[in-house]
Specification:
Length: 506
């Protein structure tokens, strides 16, 4: 069986429909026919390198644009596994991905080419030069990758502190998209306002590919609250993280009555607002509903499992809850003390908290070059261990209670590793010891907080720390609060007791 992703995208009924609108107002709309023709040309260039792809990682870097989509589809048509880099990331973060993925080919656009060549000297670097015109021609189905072949590898942070490459097959991505198509009623005449980064599952799979799966249009834009309110008047679907909604509401509160009326009218045009990647505070949902008349649909998923739970498209959306299983997904809530063996067969009853564990055709193929971590991700019943604690009510609606592990933070829609941030900042000359925790915050979800023990005779401010961090961490990983402490609480084994630390700071 060949890739259901490519079968779906190549069978779009109207090649003249607009697929992508770039944020650059001077860029012409890109139709499905143009997009697929350009992807075909790129696939031929990749095959001409003489490098056998056959599921091998192909790293690519492009700003959110038609060029990004061309690269993604071109890699698939050539048989490779797409690995997106983020323009937001620092050189050390790029180096980690390149070291782990070990690509022989890297694709990029002209603005990034010199920087990419500097960090990937052993790889062949191809510049994404979208042709002015590309003639669409039939694609040989024999060249399509198999359904089980790797489609995309996205990097996510775990409790080990280093991002791991999560490999998703064509079949797994297609299962997620088909499930969301059924649940959220994607339509060919939809237009999505896309403000999300394209190196994690929310931006690339749920939003971008969700729209393309339906034959809809993606309108890319960089996030700025006031222009975003204006752009809402041009679209029908909006997907964001809680932090974006908080920023939109800040702009709404600051607007005069006439401008608020325009914002409200623009929001009323949409058929769907969704939120994910972090818990949506009920107070934020209520304020947004009061401002716009729209009730945000909250859902739950992660890179390894796709989307698993969702509030309904029609019907009651429960504030503070992530809803019920999406089509094709089965979730057990297992007592936190269960080890996945015989005790793991006991399930939590209504109102009893436990870890969410998942069975689904959407599940990832494994962590790249890390069979030990892959095996540890599943229990003896074959369920994926999410590391999230939740509770199901009598009606089957699930509410998340937080991360099982305190070293994984969810801030501004990103899942971050506290250990990675600690490792990056520990080299600061003023820092003797450091622990990073997430403190509850209405805007950010987890407010990234650095608790620091200062070296004798040294001093450090938040501005000092943030200036240092800009060279070693992506902007969304940089601490937003600094607390200087005399010592970090530790247990008898020397491990920092982050629960104690968070309680002291609350």
């Amino acid at each position: 069986m060949t890739s259901p992703l490519l079968q779906r995208l190549l069978s779009h009924p109207a090649r003249d429909d607009v697929a992508v609108l770039d944020d650059d107002s001077s860029a012409a709309p890109t139709t499905y026919g143009e997009l697929l023709a350009r992807a075909n040309v790129l696939a031929a260039r990749l095959r001409d390198t003489g490098t056998p792809l056959d599921g091998a990682p192909v790293v690519f870097l492009a700003a959110p644009s038609a060029a990004y989509v061309e690269a993604l589809l071109g890699i698939w048509l050539a048989g490779g596994c797409a690995v997106p880099l983020s323009p937001l990331h620092t050189t050390p973060e790029w180096l980690h991905v390149l070291d782990n993925a070990a690509p022989s080919v890297v694709l990029t656009t002209a603005p990034f080419v010199e920087r990419v060549r500097a960090v990937a000297p052993s790889a062949r670097v191809l510049i994404l030069a979208t042709p002015e015109a590309a003639t669409e021609h039939p694609v040989d189905p024999a060249r399509h990758p198999a359904a089980a072949a790797p489609a995309i590898m996205l990097y996510t942070s775990g409790t080990t502190g280093k991002p791991k490459g999560v490999v998703l097959s064509h079949a797994a991505v297609a299962a997620t998209l088909d499930s969301l198509d059924q649940a959220w009623g994607w339509r060919r005449d939809d237009r999505l306002l896309h403000l999300l980064p394209l190196h994690h599952t929310h931006g690339v799979i749920v939003a971008l590919l969700g729209a393309l799966w339906a034959g809809a249009c993606v309108r890319f834009a960089a996030f700025d609250a006031r222009p975003a309110w204006a752009l809402l008047g041009e679209v029908s679907v909006f997907m964001a993280v809680p932090t974006i909604y908080a920023k939109l509401l800040e702009a709404f509160r600051a607007a005069d009555p006439a401008l608020r009326a325009i914002y409200r009218a623009n929001a009323a045009r949409l058929r769907l607002f969704t939120s994910g990647s972090a818990a949506l505070p009920a107070t934020l949902l209520d304020e947004f509903r009061g401002a716009t008349g729209q009730t945000i649909l909250e859902r739950y998923g992660m890179t390894e499992i796709g989307m698993a739970l969702s509030n309904p498209l029609t019907g009651t959306r429960v504030p503070g809850a992530v809803g019920r299983e999406l089509p094709g997904v089965h979730i057990d809530i297992v007592p936190d003390d269960a080890d996945g063996g015989s005790d793991g067969r006991r399930l939590c009853g209504p109102g009893e908290p436990g870890e969410l564990r998942v069975r689904s055709p959407q599940l990832f193929s494994g962590y790249h070059r890390d069979p030990t971590a892959t095996a540890a991700a599943y229990d003896s019943e074959g369920r994926f261990r999410t590391g999230d604690t939740g509770v199901r009510d009598a009606a089957g609606v699930v509410r998340l209670l937080g991360r099982t592990a305190v070293d994984v933070l969810k801030s501004g829609g990103y899942k971050l590793s506290a250990l990675e941030i600690e490792d990056a900042l520990r080299a600061h000359p003023a820092i003797a010891d450091i622990a990073v925790v997430g403190l509850p915050d209405a805007t950010w979800g987890d407010l990234v907080t650095a608790c620091v023990v200062v070296r004798p005779g040294s001093a450090i401010t938040l501005n000092d720390l943030r200036a240092y961090a800009r060279d070693v961490l992506a902007p969304y990983k940089i601490p937003r609060r600094l607390v200087v402490v005399p010592a970090l609480p530790r247990n008898a084994m020397g491990k920092v007791q982050k629960g104690v630390l968070k309680a002291e700071l609350a």
